[in-house]
Amino acid sequence: MTFLNRIEPALVSDDPFVQHFAVSILQDSHLATPKTLFKALEAYDRKLPTIFPELILPHIGFLPVDEEGVQELISRLKTDNENKEWFVNLLDNADTSVLLQYESDLAPYLGRKFYKELNSFSEMDEEGLFLKLAGIANNLDNTYDPTAIQMGKRVANELIGRGIIEDWEPENAMGELLSYSFMPSIGLFQIYMAGELRTESTVPDLIKLLVRDDSDEALEEISSALIKIGTDEVVREVEKIAIDENIFIYSIDILAKIKSKEAEQALMRLWQKTDDISIQTTIADALCQHLSVEAIPLVEHQLEEGYDMIMADLEMSFYASLVLNKIDHPGLHHIKMSLIEKEDQFRQTFPPAENENKVGRNDPCPCGSGKKYKKCCL
């Protein structure tokens, strides 16, 4: 049984803590398939109890969408106007060719300007596509724009899809990026392509960039590429720098999202190598994301000794891991009651009108930066 097969059914769990945990595991892991979208929509349709400020829909914007998914989203756009923005967000994850196929249905929602850009790709030769990508990058050097980044990635995917980007090119690009003292915006797209192509030869340079760079945009893209590549070499190289206090949030998250025994064992070793409570908490939470049975005593120890509640809700992660592993732990009921009590206290402190905007650690930051809350205003 694959890890996805283990975690996907939890999206429709009637236990809100388990459902929330499943979403957090899948986010940024690149494990989900287009079928995962339908499982999440099932949870939305069933109006399952949730600890999200709203139902699950606003928190699944990372799920991949294929043609069947686009058809489903078109149907929902026509019948569920209240949640239109969330369905439109999901369409960002559909391939350009599929969006073009359904232009007449989607143009009213995605906009004529957007479709004009998509249609222009087919008219561009190799040089034109590179110039288009360079133009987007140049604009990003002046103004951060998440929409422009998405368009740039579509151009990058067009280059990859036409076979224009050969395996050696991402490796050369990483070497050039190391010669800069900062990450230029074009570098974000070069790193993205290295991840999309799973170019393992770029791993050493990606690790150097991870240690060097300090912009969240660069660190997010580097982390994503390393997770996509996801080999044992990635695990070994990340383990070497994982407890650096400047990047541990990113490096440990990489090991959390790579679902391999090697990554799990690396996390076990790292927990023993640090006494920093924030780093230990992050590692313990990552082990819960692995559904690690071996790590249960370690996580129990962390809970008993105290943990950094800003870094992770370790109690909830531990509870959900026990449930998903079907472990009849003697403290399971007590932990659930504690979680319910904490959630009730929160809702009493922040009534529903205010609570609507409660932000999860992995949700987009409400400041509008485009970064995750845990890596921005948190």
UniProtKB/TrEMBL annotation:
Q: Name one Pfam family in it.
A: SEC-C
Superkingdom classification of source: Bacteria
Q: Point out the coiled-coil segments of this chain.
A: none
Q: Can you name this protein? A: DUF1186 domain-containing protein
Source organism? Bacillus salacetis
